[in-house]
Each structure stands twice: as structure tokens, then as C-alpha cells.
Design goal:
The protein is an alpha+beta fold. It contains 5 helices and 7 strands, in the order βββααββαβαβα. It has a 5-stranded mixed sheet, with helices on one face. A two-stranded antiparallel sheet has the order 4-5. A hairpin with a 5-residue loop joins strand 1 and strand 2. The longest helix is centred in the middle third of the chain and has 17 residues. It starts with a strand and ends with a helix.
Amino acid sequence: MSDNKSGEKRESGVVLRRRDEEIPEATLRTLPDEKWSLPWIFHHRALHDPNQEVLYQVSVSRSGLEAETVRYGELLQQVRGAADKLAGLGAEEGDRVVLMIRSPSDFLAWFFAAMGLGLIPVPLPPVGKFGISEAFRLRIN
């Protein structure tokens, strides 16, 4: 974890940025019941059927395509770990979290963790091995 000049906190591809504005009451009234939220549905499925496949993480190797099965129970453990790290960074409900993560299962874990904590996940493309352009860096800072 590291802090930068703008007060952001970073953890391996995740940037936590403080909320600047309040959400209007009219917007809050239009949101669906929490029971129908993506984090709630995921958590419900993970608790009731932890051995069910949630995704296949496909990679390319010399021998061809390889698929790794990720189950709800495994992903739930990753979500809990990500949520603990976000809480440790001082994340508060309504904060924006920039997610720049390559691995599909890692991305989903951080995405669900952010949503489950009431944060706003902001997915961005991961930084390549050549770094990022100055224009892109300025846009996300």
C-alpha cells in the first residue's frame, strides 16, 4: 500500500479515491432493493452453492488454451480478502475505487468487494509493461 501526492491510496492495481460529492436523495430513491444487488446475489450463490463454477479463467500457453475453473466458494474467499484490504486502506461508502487488474477472477473479487462495501468500482485497462501515457495518467489522477 502506498500514498501519493493527491491523497490516493494504492494496492496492487487498485486506487482508492475519496468521494467529492454527495449522492442526491432523488437518485438514492430510484435504486433497487439491496436484496437484488449484484453483491447480494453473488454472496447468496456463494453461500448456498460454493462448489458451483462461477467462471473459467482462460489463458494461452505453448500447448494451446488452458481453462482454470473458479468456483463460487473460492471467489468468495478472494472477495473477503479484497474487502479486508479495501477496509484497511480506509475505504468508506461512496468512495471511488479504480480497478486496473488483468486477472478475471482477481478483477471480479475486487469488483464485488468494492460493491459490497458500498464503494464505486471504476474499471480501467491495466497498465502494460511499457507503462502508461502521460495523458492517461493525468486523466486518472
